[in-house]
Q: What sequence folds into this?
């Protein structure tokens, strides 16, 4: 199964960067979310593709029209309220932030919010308490696990990249982990973010064929925005990671969605035999 997801953020929502960390700073940057979402809607309509959108609460309250447009045709999940790394918060701070995001989404869409993704896949084994909190907030499916080593999180003990059930003190969550591949000792997401923009499409297509049983892709609106400004003060490595391959990203994604059939989380959920799924006890 191939699952397509989008993390709905503005172009300046870069994690672990001091000049773009808080909402008080975000108001200083130009607005590009409308044209970037228009681009995504066109791509999905042209390729007849379903997708699930994880939206941060700041987008919900600042640009409610964008969220209403998404909800008209697509699934929506929470991407937290203020887009902060989970391991930088206490359990109570995380609970309040996630709860606020979920309620805002439900209020504006009139739909129950059952899906969640943490910024930067930042739930590590040491933050297993986050799954219990999400369960208590009504989340049924999580997409926060990076089953390998990752700069902002990483959950190597998750094991095989496949849907599984996470059990924390008897509270169960279905998990759709992000797909990754180990190359030279590093785990990479070749069908999302910077690596998707960096690698040639022939290689992406080859790997996707090899991962035919399960593939979860994630894209940010900024990944397709070749005209976005550069956030000032970024180190060279971060500039490369955030801006490499922007000019060809839209064409690459269109080809990807043409060569492979993608669907949303709700459809994929029905295709999984959960009675036979692995149970991961935390």
A:
């Amino acid at each position: 199964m191939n699952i397509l997801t989008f993390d709905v953020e503005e172009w300046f929502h870069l994690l672990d960067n001091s000049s773009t960390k808080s909402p008080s700073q975000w108001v200083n940057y130009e607005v590009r979310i409308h044209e970037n979402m228009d681009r995504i809607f066109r791509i999905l309509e042209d390729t007849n593709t379903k997708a699930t959108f994880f939206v941060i609460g700041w987008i919900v309250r600042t640009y409610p029209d964008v969220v209403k447009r998404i909800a008209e045709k697509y699934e929506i999940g929470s991407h937290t309220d203020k887009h902060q790394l989970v391991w930088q918060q206490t359990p109570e701070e995380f609970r309040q932030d996630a709860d606020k995001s979920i309620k805002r989404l439900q209020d504006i869409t009139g739909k129950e919010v059952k899906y969640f993704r943490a910024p930067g896949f930042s739930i590590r084994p040491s933050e297993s308490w986050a799954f219990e909190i999400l369960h208590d907030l009504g989340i049924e499916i999580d997409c926060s696990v990076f089953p390998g080593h990752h700069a902002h999180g990483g959950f190597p003990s998750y094991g095989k990249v496949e849907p599984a059930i996470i059990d924390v003190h008897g509270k169960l969550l279905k998990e759709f982990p992000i797909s990754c591949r180990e190359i030279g000792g590093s785990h990479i997401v070749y069908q999302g973010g910077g690596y998707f923009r960096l690698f040639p499409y022939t290689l992406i297509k080859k790997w996707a064929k090899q991962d035919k049983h399960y593939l979860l892709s994630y894209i940010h609106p900024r990944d397709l925005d070749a005209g976005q400004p550069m956030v000032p003060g970024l180190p060279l490595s971060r500039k490369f990671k955030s801006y490499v391959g922007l000019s060809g990203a839209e064409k690459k994604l269109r080809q990807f969605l043409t060569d492979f059939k993608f669907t949303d989380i709700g459809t994929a959920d029905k295709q999984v035999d959960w009675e036979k799924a692995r149970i991961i006890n935390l």
Summary: The first strand starts at residue 2 and ends at 8.
